[in-house]
Every structure is written in C-alpha cells, then in structure tokens.
C-alpha cells in the first residue's frame, strides 16, 4: 500500500505565522503544513462563506413566506428525506471511486442548484413548493458530499495531524459562518435575499479549482485495500466488487462492534441534536425573543460561528489526550448553556451565550469524529462516515423539527429548555450505563 503519509504530505514545518517564538503552524494548526490540505481548506472556506449567505437568505425567505417555526424545522427535514437511501449508495461510492473526483462532481451539482434557487428568488417567483423541492435536491447532493469530504481528509494529512485536520475542517464551516452570516444579514437588508443566494453560486468555483490542484493518487480505497491484502497473501481476493447489501452491512458492523465508540457517536447525535436548535431556530429567536431584524439575525449567527472558531483552538491545544472525559464534560455543559440562552433578555447576552454554545458544539462534534476517524480502517471509511453523516444530519434536523413543533405550544424559550433537559438526562444516563466512553482516546 502506498504510504498515506508519503512525500506529498511531508512538507516543511518551518513556516511561521510570526517571528521567532511566535505562533507557528506546527503548534496551532499542524495540518496546514500539508499543501494538499491547505488547498482543500481554502477552497472549502470560500465555498462555505457562500453557503452561509444562502443559509441566512433561506431562513429569512422561509420565515417571511410562512411566519412559522414549524416550517423552519420542516424544510430542514425535507432536506433529510433523501439522505438515508442516497447515503447508503454514496458510502459505497466513496470507497469505490477516487474521492477527489467524487467531491468535484458534487460541488458542480451544488453550483447548479444554487443558481436555480437564486434566479427564482431574484425573479420574485419563489414559492414555498420551490423551496421544498430545492431543499430535497440540496439534501440529496450533501448526502454524498459531506461524508466524501470527511473521508478525504486521511488522504491529505499525516496521521499524526488527523485530529487537527478534523477540527480545522469543522472550523471551516464556522469561520466561513462568522463572515457569511454577518455579511448575509447586511446583503439581505441592502441587495435582497435573491442576490445573496446568487452570490453563493459563484463561490463553488473555488473548491472546484482547488480540488483540481490537489496532488493525490486518484485510486479508490477498496482497490488499495485489496492490493494490500493480495501483497500480504493473507487470503484470496475476489476480482468482483462486494455485493451492495454486504458492503452496507460491513460499514454498520464496523461501528456496532465498538460499543464505546458507538456511545460517543450517540452523544453527538442526541446531545448535539437537542441543543443544536439554538442555532437552527435563530430566525424565529431573533424575531420573537430578542426582537431584532435581519442585521441582528446575522450578528447572532456570526456569534455562534465565532464560538466554533474558539472551540477549534481548544481542540488544537487541549484535546490530544483524554478525549473521553472532555466529551462527557462538554455533553453536560451544553444543556446548561442552552437554558441560559433560551431566556436571554437582549441581543448582547444572547450573543455571549451563543459564542459559548458554538464552541461547545464544535468541541463535541470534533471529538467524536476524531475518535471515529482514528479507529476505523480506510477500506470502510466512506461507509462509516456516511453512517456518521446520517446520524449527524438526522439528529440536527430531528431536533429542529421537535423544538419547532413544541414552540407552537410552549413558546420558543420553553421548547429550547425541554430539548436541553432531555439532552442532560441522556448524557447522565449514558455516563452511568457505558463508562467506557470516558476511556476513549
């Protein structure tokens, strides 16, 4: 097997962000020493700034069309509908196709989808059913794109830098959000939601170009695994691909056979899913709780993104060891922060609590995905990352739907608190039932 940490990934670690004794990439962001990862990271940052503009514009358009917290959650659910069937196929594609080429295809599809959405909004013809259809298409593309990007990380960095690459990859969503959310509010207020949507389409050009510049062998992971087994002479290798059902089951069993790891993933899904609506319900929260406008909504979203960037720093400096105990602590802190945020009386207090919530959510997700990446073989990485993505997307969307529905009867603050209470109970229960999670690295 070709060395995954070969010369393409071994670059000088002497680059500095400051002078002698200053901040260096080797201490704060060692993954950025890899040229391939730098290209990938820059391309994704530009693209996701545009996606953040789209998220603000979509949320604004949906709430303006419906004035309903239910539809804010329901549209997210509609994007989830294609995830399960397409992800099952997508996970196999990720392991059987060169991942770089697959991501290029998904990025091109996302570009087309965003152009259609933007043109409909600019023309004034956008209706709720358009949003429903386009959300469904968007979810179908992301069902392949997100796990493919997560699985691609191991081809871009040295294994020792993988945890940092995972944190930086998560942070790119939030660094872009810090810029995109704040800018999105201003653009909606000045240029309108339609032109804000169209600007997103142009940003997909950046990752398409950057992916073309990345130098990695375009070889499918399952072919590499078969070649390694054949060279080792451990067992005969079938020239035909593994049947679809067997391939899907193998990915599921890889995770199922590690109860502690499965428990950690469940914390991400349940605790993250039930506290995440603090971000998912922000369009309604901005209007109903802190009584602000589109610019205020952008500020709130930027506060959550800023917290996620701070969470990346915590991961880089303190999460190389004792990931299990840190995961437990964060799982218990998130509900407490949510209780305070639910009843924040003004924009400033809400932003402060959103910074803390954003940091805690980023740490939770980064810890879990790092644990998964470090403990699964590469030949099933695409399928396991797909299962992770299904749980992540499902829990996030399910949490938004439940809280959005409860808000119709309880009001948004009490609905958020109900989710936080359920998250706290689950975290405490899992710690009692499965203490092995605390021993994960």
What is the element string, with H for helices and E for strands?
HHHHHHHHHHHHHHHHHHH
Secondary-structure-based class equals mainly alpha
- Strand proportion, as a percent range, falls in under 5%
Question: Main sheet?
Answer: none
What is the CATH homology-level superfamily? Answer: MFS general substrate transporter like domains
Percentage of residues in helical conformation: over 70%
Q: Give the rounded overall mean pLDDT.
A: 78
Query: Which CATH-level-2 architecture?
Result: Up-down Bundle
Write down the CATH class: Mainly Alpha
Low-confidence stretches: 1-23, 224-239
Q: In angstroms, what is the radius of gyration?
A: 21 Å
Query: Between the first and last Cα atoms, what is the distance in angstroms?
Result: 26 Å
Shape: globular
Overall tally of domains = 1
Q: What attributes does this structure have?
A:
441 residues; mainly alpha; Growth Hormone, Chain: A; globular; disordered N terminus
Q: Could you give the topology of this structure?
A:
Layout lengths: L24 H4 L6 H32 L2 H12 L2 H14 L2 H25 L4 H25 L9 H29 L2 H11 L1 H9 L7 H12 L11 H13 L2 H17 L1 H4 L1 H7 L5 H25 L4 H20 L4 H28 L6 H30 L1 H22 L8
Helix pairs in contact: 2-3, 2-7, 2-8, 2-9, 3-6, 3-18, 4-6, 4-18, 5-6, 5-8, 5-9, 6-18, 7-8, 7-15, 7-17, 11-18, 12-16, 12-17, 12-18, 12-19, 14-15, 15-17, 16-17, 16-19, 18-19
